[in-house]
Amino acid sequence: MTSKDNNTITFVGLPYYPLGIEYEGTESLEEAFKKSDEIRSQHSTEAFKKAILERIERERSKTKADFYILVAHVPISGSISGSERAFYRSRYEITYEANEICRLPFDYIALGHFHVMQMVGTPNCRYSGSIYRLTFDEPSYIDGRKVSKSEKGIILVDEKGGKLVPEPIYIITRDLCVVHLKYLDARLDPVPRNVNEIVDMISARCPIVDVNNPPLIKVIVRIADTQRRIFDEYTIRKRLLQKGYLDVKFDVRTEQTIMPQVKTSSLPIEESLTKYVENLQIPSDIRQEVVKEALRILKEDKVR
Predict the structure, then answer these.
(1) Of the candidates 121, 278, 289, 293, which lies 20 to 30 Å from 87 by C-alpha distance?
(2) Is 179 helix (H, G, I), strand (E, B) or coil?
(3) Is residue 2 part of a domain?
(4) pTM
(5) What is the per-residue DSSP string for 95-156?
């Protein structure tokens, strides 16, 4: 193609190519994967990469141009994967080293695959990333801390002084926040009895920067089974929505509590009960009430 400044530009494309997956002659994805396993047994990853890189060189040499741009949909080792991490380095992907792609003889290399905007290897080898956050695997805040390289935008590539120069252009997108809460020991980290305390704690870790573009929150909770009933995520979510958040998602992970073993055979029943309750993982502010109620029930049983 020819630019408005009459510079000729040649584009070479490197599409995403899962290692050894050939769809021709197959009727399903499972069949394609099975076929790929057979191909993998005959060819090495390095052989595939060598053939691909040689093909890129041949395509580039077919035309004469002022500038050459490689558009490559490839995963490069060491890059920030973001929401693509579930597939990163899978056995069906060809993963390249930065110097294998970024040192190819091109004036600019536009990378695709990972959704985080980032430079790889050299200033003219970059992932533009996605223009908005796709999942909570690429949050803008984690527990109130702004995540580096979480900005979204586009990369403008312009000619300056006979060279192609990339310039990131950032755009405002909706924030995604991940907040962690831990209530594994009622004595050390009890669930607050006042729901508003939890709401305030979460909102402090996910600021609403733009009321017209409010964040989404994912709250990951690790909680002891003895405290699970106390944690009311439905009311917490309702209060957070009232504060202006777009939506709130909870991931509550309940962990089993090992019940304490207290030797009480030589103690009076009242004293044994008191010691047992004191070792339970229940909030200290209601522990005495539990003991009192348990003793009352014991007395009623004795009367009967």
Answers:
(1) 121
(2) strand
(3) no
(4) 0.68
(5) PBPHHHHHTSS-SEEEEES-SS-EEESEEEEEE---SS--STTS-SEETTEEPTT--EEEEE
